[in-house]
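# step 3/5: fold
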Amino acid sequence: MINFQPGYILEVESWENDADNYQTKIVGSLSKEVAEVMFDIICYFKPRSQYKNCFGNSVIGSEDLIVLVEKYRKRVFDAFFEAGWDIHSEEDVDDSFIIENIVDKLIGAWNEGEYFRVMNSAKMYYTPVAFEPIICKNVNR
């Protein structure tokens, strides 16, 4: 069960390839600054075929991400680590690597990790108190 501490929560819905296979990811207990960086980054992942300067459905590791690296230099490390995510390898850890990992954690990839998914919607919430969501699964009536 996910427990949220006071702070900001991001809820990101995404799809892969041809607007199918929807999924929603939620990350919480973030500071305002970190939530805003993540929210801004994820908004660049609308479908690249429909939006100029967006990267949804683009190849992971694409040189196009340099735009995001330049814009968010150094702020992404704080965002990544505040979310409680780990780096499994210390090799080649730079801003681009961290941005790719933030995007992967928030929207994921498809085709065996070759392409970024597409951000369908992103919402940011604030909670002043800690809480545990109640989720109803597999209820038969």
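# step 4/5: annotate
The mean pLDDT is 82.
# step 5/5: archive (pending)
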